[in-house]
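REQUEST FORM: STRUCTURE PREDICTION
Request ID: SP-0412
Submitted by: Lab K.M.
Chain count: 1
Length (residues): 385
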Amino acid sequence: MGRKSNVPADTLLRLPALEVRQGPRRTLYSFAVDGKLLHQFATVSRLRRPDGDGIAGYQRPEVRNHIGEIRNYLESDGAMLPNALVVAFDKRVRFEAGDIQVLGPKYSRIGTLVIPINESWPEDRRPGWIVDGQQRAAAIRDAQVKGFPVCVVAFVTDDAHEQREQFILVNSTKPLPKGLIHELLPSTTAKLPSRLQRRRFPAYLSDRLNYDSDSPFQGLIQTPTNPAGLVKDNSVLRMIEQSLNEGALYPYRDNATGMGQSEKMLAILKAYWSAVGDVFGEAWAKPPRRSRLMHGAGIVSMGLVMDAIADRFGGKTTPTQKQFAGDLRPLRDDCAWTNGFWEFGPGAQRKWNEIQNTSKDIQALANYLLYRYKAKVWDVALKEA
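STATUS: Completed
RESULT:
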């Protein structure tokens, strides 16, 4: 790596860097650079099959929606990208050790990374390839900011196979479990990508349901910190989200912020699900394999029944636990939460535990419960009115 570059000096980018030797053959370079400069010396080797031959390149095409979300975040106050990008350089890049070294471990030394830059070079002539951080780099490039310094970890090799190997290793590590992300969301305040922003308030409500002492769900929602919970957190989140969108919780939602009157919402959720626990006591707080009420299909479908009951009350008053229970009780004989069969119609009988957490089964169960509720409660109430 001590080879001199044959390009003019005015096209050399010189960056303070730390050289780190990993074992007898591997050397890494850690440095900071304005992200706006990345695309002057690094490009993305996109996955392709030239002329029908074997695979060339190693990166996926840019994902525009994801890039847009990162760009919006970068343009907000207090934006931070703490994760380093990974870049593979060819041997035109060199490291110059500093004349003065700080006393420390022998496997590292400070110096300058020298990177050739030439605006006339096409992408495939640039000395660097972005192994990890393609979308972050594109977002910085497109963001309406003057500059945004980022951390970069780099290695040097002319071997495309090694570059692809590192790309696979970097990108095949197990991502954070969704449950952990959901559990962390309520404690965040920074602007997040839109898909996480939308889940922050539902995650807060779910967290309260799991830990409030007056909640029927107390300790029952399974999360990374509560692995003994019986109900999947994603099922509770889905139930809350659909109610926020157009159900019982919607009137208390602030559409501008995606937040809302949490205490009123929690009062509805606690009253309804307490009534569910009372009416279907034999099926409540049992493992999903023994009760389809505690299964994802049951939670989501019964959430729609909650919305229907609230709708019957016209939104003028919030149903009490007693009123919720009164509307649920006529459905007892129609439900096969722990045994028997679901009578969905001629030729559509399903054993109680055949209901799965799939969109098709959730829709079938929800339609059945809402149909029976309308026939046994809503239509009867209209006739008596």
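NOTES: Residues 9-171 form one domain.
Reviewed by: T.R.
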